[in-house]
């Protein structure tokens, strides 16, 4: 039986920090499903379809990674695709409380699905999608932190230009 893990998030947009976590997860699981949350409590820059497209484009070279979009509870989706584990990245200490809250609530909703925390490379420790959006909107260069397709999409959306 295949060991499937799900890596959920808003990915608005996906960054190299997320991809670093994804690569680490593929070393532990047979298949990792990157699941883009269609609706979250956040105001998104990119809609679900665009976030999914950027995730697919950015990870197409990775083996055993699938990209999908989901709506509703993540545990329901995990159960539907037969995932045993949920991957979350833990960056600075500030992530811990929020991540613990999510993990415990998900455990309450489905005790069979465990959360696996992975630590990203130190250069991605303080990276977040909102920081990337902010810096690009102000004309800063963050190309080392994001895939080229994401950089182009951000420039087009925020500055009306592209490389
Ligand atoms: N590298 C870079 N940034 C990272 C990162 C990494 N390795 N890991 C997390 N982040 C950042 C994200 O960029 C994001 O930054 P932002 O807030 O500036 O946009 C932030 O950390 C957290 O984002 P994300 O990991 O996408 O989590 P989220 O809180 O937006 O979404 C869901 C979490 C989608 C998994 C959760 O809301 C969910 O499961 N929703 C479905 C409904 C549900 O089941 N709810 C009950 C859950 S208990």
Summary of the model, kept short:
The protein has helices at residues 16-26, 48-59, 74-80, 95-109, 129-137, 148-159; strands at residues 4-9, 31-37, 65-70, 85-89, 114-118.
Helical run tally: 6
How many strand elements?
Answer: 5
Percent strand equals 15-25%
Going by helix content, strand content and strand pairing, the class is alpha/beta
Q: Give the CATH topology.
A: Rossmann fold
* Radius of gyration computed on alpha carbons: 15 Å
The spatial strand order of the largest sheet comes to: 3-2-1-4-5
What would you say the CATH architecture is? 3-Layer(aba) Sandwich
CATH superfamily: HUPs
The run of helices and strands is EHEHEHEHEHH
CATH class annotation: Alpha Beta
The CA-CA distance between the termini, in Å, is: 44 Å
Give the biggest beta sheet: 5 strands, parallel
Q: Domains counted in the coordinates: how many?
A: 1
Helix content: 40-55%
Q: Give the mean pLDDT.
A: 95
- Could you list the spans in which at least 5 consecutive residues all have pLDDT below 50? none
Small-molecule components bound: coenzyme A
The shape is globular
């Amino acid at each position: 039986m295949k060991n499937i893990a799900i890596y959920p998030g808003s990915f608005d947009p996906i960054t190299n920090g997320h991809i670093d976590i994804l690569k680490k997860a593929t070393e532990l699981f047979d298949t990792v499903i990157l699941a883009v949350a269609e609706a979250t409590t956040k105001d998104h820059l990119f809609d679900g379809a665009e976030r999914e497209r950027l995730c697919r484009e950015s990870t197409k070279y990775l083996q055993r990674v699938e990209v999908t979009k989901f709506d509703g509870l993540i545990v329901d989706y995990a159960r539907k695709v037969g995932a045993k584990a949920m991957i979350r990245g833990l960056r600075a200490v500030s992530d811990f409380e929020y991540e613990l809250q999510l993990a415990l609530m998900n455990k309450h909703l489905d005790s069979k699905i465990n959360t696996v925390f992975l630590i990203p490379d130190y250069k991605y420790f303080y990276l977040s999608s909102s920081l990337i959006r902010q810096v690009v909107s102000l004309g800063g260069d963050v190309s080392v932190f994001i895939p080229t397709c994401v950089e182009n999409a951000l420039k087009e959306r925020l500055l009306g230009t592209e490389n």
